[in-house]
Amino acid sequence: MTPLELSQVRSVAPVLLMTLTQGLSLGWSSPAVGKLRAGEGSFAPTLDEISWIVSFFSLGILAGSLVGSAVFARAGRRTTLMLGPVLLASCSAITFLSSSAQPLYLARLLGGAGHGVGVSFASIYVAEVSETAMRGRLILWTNLQIMAGPLISYAVGPLLSYRLLALVPLLTASASLFLALGSGWMQETPFYLASKGRADQALAALRALRAGKKDEEIRAELAAIQKTVKQQASAGSGSLREVFADPVAKKAACLCLFVTGSFAMLGITTVMVFTQQIVEVAGAPLSPAVCSVLLVAVNIAAVLGSMPVVERLGRRTILSGSALGNAASLATLAGFFVARDVLGADVSGVHWLPLACLVSYMASTGMGVVTIPHVLTSELLPQRAKASVAPLSGALVAISAFVLHKSFFIVGRALGFAAPFTFFAAYNLGYSVFVASLVPETKGKTLAQVQEMLAASTADDKKKRN
């Protein structure tokens, strides 16, 4: 690793640990709920209490996105992101101490808030501190940690007691805070500092982030950042009203809100939260615990496999293909449930099919859906729009996830489990068509070049309408 690459990785390291903590907290639900239902926890919740324990995490994401938005524009990216480990550590501590459902509701709400901060702002921070050649890979690594967290939770869940499992996220949250506050590695972003008129601090941050580069190259990059910030500042403060009044910012915002805000609607949060329960309903040939580890491992392998090609094939191609693969896998799974539960067919000869569909789904999801939307959001949104649009996207995910998680088993028991998976398959198909048709390609472009491309595209659209 070159000094230039190392300087950027060091600044992003606390964020990587924070997103790992997000994944650990997200993945806690599946093994912990299993322990609670088996009487291995500190209390025995009802099924309704379990549904609320799971769903409060989604409500917390909404709160974290909105609170983080207020801090993001005023106190900076670095300060905002450090709210994440604090909230996630609080979730871990309260979970360890809880002996009834009500404290656990609070814990999951705080954990969701920490997750909301990370989901809304981690990719933006990484994009603003990294250079073009490193940006895509670092954002992918950031999102990879979110997937690694559930894998660790699923793997160690059977080995740890309920209370010890609750403490695992506390370790990584503490390490994240130490690296951010104690090591001096984590820099504030030059974009934020330039937007506040702190040119000297922006230059110092760039020098720390661009180790090995010549000073004239660093000053040229700062000049480009200041030019972009000045152009965007002249367009307004970045409130949602001003963003949607500007045709270029409006186009970027609408694209990002759909691409990123659809995360739960694509089915991934439901599958992650209810992995073991879905495997039980489908009657997979392996135990739910083994299937959970297998599915997350496949997802991580797919994310790793996408890294070498993300800059070669481009964001749009990978994301559209990923959603199309999701649609095929989920449609096949829905067909299995129709054959078994509606038509009464003998499916013993294909009892392996549901697990194969879930493996295929997690593989195609890992290739693009769990990573590329965050890359696109960090690249497409103009600087002034990030503080208002990113949390709105997180809010859309939180609200849709809450509704889907709360209703998944209700709909499954009332209409059959083919119904929710048919919905997810149809949404993935529409998502794939939307991305292929309307999302611009950003590979190999600086953030300033992306904004110029959007401006030219918006001007062309206006000419066509006239």
Brief digest:
It holds the Pfam family Sugar_tr. With 466 residues, the chain is an all-alpha fold. It folds into 2 domains: 1-187, Growth Hormone, Chain: A (Up-down Bundle), CATH 1.20.1250; 240-465, Growth Hormone, Chain: A, CATH 1.20.1250.20.
Describe the structure in your own words.
The structure is a single chain. This protein has 466 residues and is mainly α. It folds into two domains: 1-187, MFS general substrate transporter like domains (Growth Hormone, Chain: A); 240-465, MFS general substrate transporter like domains (Growth Hormone, Chain: A, Up-down Bundle), CATH 1.20.1250. Helices cover 81% and strands 0% of the residues. The chain has helices at residues 3-27, 29-37, 47-75, 77-97, 101-129, 132-156, 162-181, 190-195, 199-209, 215-233, 240-245, 247-261, 268-273, 275-282, 288-306, 310-313, 315-342, 353-369, 372-380, 386-415, 418-438, 447-465. Helix 9 (199-209) crosses helix 10 and helix 17 (315-342) packs antiparallel against helix 21. The chain is globular, with a radius of gyration of 22 Å. The N and C termini lie far apart (52 Å).
Could you give a short account of the major beta sheet? none
How are helices and strands ordered from N to C?
HHHHHHHHHHHHHHHHHHHHHH
Derived from helix and strand composition plus strand pairing, the structural class reads: mainly alpha
The CATH superfamily of the largest domain bears the name: MFS general substrate transporter like domains
Q: Uncertain spans, ≥5 residues at pLDDT below 50?
A: none
Average pLDDT, to the nearest integer? 87
CATH architecture of the largest domain: Up-down Bundle
Radius of gyration: 22 Å
* Percent of residues in beta strands: under 5%
**DSSP strand count:** 0
What is the CA-CA span between the terminal residues?
52 Å
Number of helices: 22
Helix content: over 70%
CATH class of the largest domain: Mainly Alpha
CATH topology of the largest domain: Growth Hormone, Chain: A
Domain count: the total is 2
